[in-house]
């Protein structure tokens, strides 16, 4: 079984009524995050995160995690699966046509889509459609174990998070949710979403170039754009300091993360859990 990067499980806080608990799964092609959510007081009770080396087919590794993980073994009332896959297209309601779904995807991501399924998700609050591809092996592994689970794409809770806290954030800013080797980037300009996509990177300069290019594309000055970072990034890391070379304000996003007070959660920076907590609270 793969070794988790993080494992926190507070057995003393497991609710005796399974219906009070929800398992939230952050499922990517090269990672798996498991968050145990106590619904009644909106707090995290447990969290695990796994990285996988080969993004082509991690089915056996994910099956091993879901079979042997102590967190996944806990009885819960519901399961929410959040697909964290990079091939996505956002289409405004006024431009959406059901017969053009495949062409929309192929225009942006190409037509090499064998071994994937295309999903359409209507985001009513944003008046847009999220079109995304899921590798069949990833879909099959989760369907085998969680047939009744709710399913959405990672962009839905990320957009909901921004919408719910619109008054707390600058009207123009860049949100970066960090995962190993990639980042979910959401660029806001005058409270409007300009960019929302997964950016892979191998070295810090790759990411710096990508976000600087995005700012230039939308006529935004990096000196005026604060960055809020969350997820698996250290405040003193090379990539954090690389961003500070071009953006004067880079701040860990610790907005309203609730977990059971204990030494295990407290031993990590709060911003580590911001994406996981938002997935738990917005993926209901």
What is the gist of this entry?
The chain is of the alpha/beta class and 284 residues long.
Q: In terms of structural class, how would the helical and strand content be classed? A: alpha/beta
* Strand portion: 25-35%
Overall 3D shape: globular
| Continuous helix count | 8
The CATH architecture category of the largest domain equals 2-Layer Sandwich
What would you call the quaternary organization? Answer: single chain
Q: Would you identify the regions where 5 or more consecutive residues have pLDDT less than 50?
A: none
Spell the H/E element sequence: EEEEHEEHEEHEHEEEHEHEHH
As a percent range, the share of helical residues equals 25-40%
CATH H-tier superfamily of the largest domain:
Protein of unknown function DUF3822, N-terminal domain
Biggest sheet: strand arrangement: 1-4-3-2-5-9
Query: What would CATH call the class of the largest domain?
Result: Alpha Beta
Q: How many DSSP E strands?
A: 14
Please describe what this structure looks like.
The chain has 284 residues and is an alpha/beta fold. The protein has two domains: 1-164 and 255-284, Protein of unknown function DUF3822, N-terminal domain (Nucleotidyltransferase, domain 5), CATH 3.30.420.250; 166-252, Protein of unknown function DUF3822, C-terminal domain (Nucleotidyltransferase, domain 5, 2-Layer Sandwich), CATH 3.30.420. It contains eight helices and 14 strands. The strands form three sheets. The protein has a six-stranded mixed sheet with strand order 1-4-3-2-5-9, covered by helices on one side. A five-stranded mixed sheet has the order 12-11-10-13-14, sandwiched between helices. A three-stranded antiparallel sheet has the order 6-8-7. The longest helix has 14 residues, at 204-217. The chain is globular, with a radius of gyration of 19 Å. The mean pLDDT is 89.
């Amino acid at each position: 079984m793969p070794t988790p990067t993080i494992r926190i499980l507070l057995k003393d806080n497991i609710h005796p009524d399974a219906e009070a608990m929800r398992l939230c799964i952050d499922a990517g092609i090269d990672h798996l995050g498991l968050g145990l959510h106590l619904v009644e007081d909106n707090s995290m009770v447990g969290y695990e995160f796994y990285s996988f080396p080969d993004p082509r087919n991690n089915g056996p590794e994910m099956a091993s995690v879901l079979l042997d993980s102590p967190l996944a073994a806990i009885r819960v009332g519901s399961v929410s699966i959040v697909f964290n896959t990079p091939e996505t297209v956002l289409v405004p309601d006024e431009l959406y046509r059901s017969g053009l779904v495949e062409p929309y995807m192929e225009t942006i991501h190409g037509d090499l889509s064998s071994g994937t399924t295309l999903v359409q998700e209507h985001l009513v609050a944003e008046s847009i459609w999220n079109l995304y591809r899921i590798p069949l092996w990833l879909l099959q592994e989760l369907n085998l174990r969680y047939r009744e689970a709710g399913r959405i794409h990672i962009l839905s809770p990320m957009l909901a998070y921004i919408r719910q806290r619109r008054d707390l954030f600058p009207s123009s800013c860049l949100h970066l949710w960090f995962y190993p080797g990639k980042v979910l980037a959401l660029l806001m300009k005058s409270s409007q979403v300009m960019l929302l996509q997964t950016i892979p990177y191998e070295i810090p300069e790759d990411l710096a170039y990508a976000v600087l290019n995005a700012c230039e594309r939308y006529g935004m000055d990096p000196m005026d754009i604060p960055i809020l970072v969350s997820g698996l990034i250290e405040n003193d890391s090379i990539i954090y300091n690389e961003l500070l070379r071009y953006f004067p304000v880079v701040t860990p996003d610790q907005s309203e993360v609730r977990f059971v007070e204990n030494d295990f959660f407290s031993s990590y920076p709060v911003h580590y859990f911001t994406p996981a907590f938002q997935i738990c609270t917005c993926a209901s």
